């Protein structure tokens, strides 16, 4: 089984009732893209963004990756998927890209976990997007 807390959460591969793998690493920054977190990024991107946005400290960069990235950062609109979807429906291209990148990130982890578990019986979606995000689900 795979459980995914859609939005600001993570994915968990569950085997025989126990956590087998989880998308977060040492911190919640690694793994799937989230509402405000970047998810997996090339380590060289950190110095590039710091130079491009004139971010002077690593603490500010970590804040940026945790609070100003994810589909909020890509869309330029919100960390609320409902607002991102509304803007996409109105033709906003950045929000369409944000949704596509978010879904691609999810698919990557679901595919990885299906392979690791050698098949699954179910995928569960939780949280606000899991409950209400019909298009994303």
Automatic annotation (TrEMBL):
InterPro entries in the record: Aliphatic_acid_kin_short-chain (IPR000890), ATPase_NBD (IPR043129)
Family note: Belongs to the acetokinase family.
UniProtKB keywords: ATP-binding, Kinase, Nucleotide-binding, Transferase
Kinase is among the record's keywords: yes
GO molecular-function terms, A-Z: acetate kinase activity; ATP binding
Protein name (Swiss-Prot/TrEMBL): Acetate kinase
A Pfam short name: Acetate_kinase
Protein source organism: Ligilactobacillus araffinosus DSM 20653
Tree of life domain: Bacteria
Annotated GO biological process: acetate metabolic process
Keyword ATP-binding: yes
